[in-house]
Design goal:
Blueprint (H helix, E strand, L loop, with lengths): L1 E5 L3 H13 L3 E5 L2 H10 L4 E4 L8 H10 L8 E5 L6 H8 L3 E4 L7 H6 L7
Parallel strand pairs: 1-2, 1-3, 3-4, 4-5
Helix pairs in contact: 2-3
């Protein structure tokens, strides 16, 4: 399964990439929202992980644009973010995200958390 991870922070990317590739997933990185949109519209991904605090276009705007792109409305988008204040989950879901996972992630449970959003497991 192919996963797009839109994340500008190297440490966050490397941890998630290490966990997911160790479980057999292929992970592609975008460093900002526009790059993520470009990659998502040109390639097939089974899941998109999306940081909210991105340079330029934030994750909320990115999710909205991804939802408008042809062929992407059904692709699960999971916000993976340190934004954990009251209302942040609702804001991410309203922007077009399918799910919401708070950082820091738990390496022991992270794969189980994202697998609930993968096609065939919803």
């Amino acid at each position: 399964m192919n996963i797009l991870y839109i994340e500008d922070n190297d440490q966050n990317f490397y941890l998630v990439n290490f966990i997911l590739t160790g479980r057999g997933y292929e992970v592609t990185r975008a460093r900002d929202g526009q790059e993520g949109i470009d990659l998502a519209t040109k390639n097939h991904f089974d899941l998109i992980l999306l940081d909210i605090q991105l340079p330029g276009m934030d994750g909320y705007a990115t999710a909205g644009e991804l939802r408008k792109a042809p062929g992407l409305p059904g692709t699960p988008i999971v916000a993976l973010t340190s934004y954990a204040m009251a209302g942040d989950r609702e804001k991410a879901l309203a922007a077009g995200c399918t799910g919401y996972i708070e950082k820091p992630i738990n390496p022991k449970t992270f794969t189980d958390q994202i697998e609930q959003y993968l096609p065939g497991r919803i």
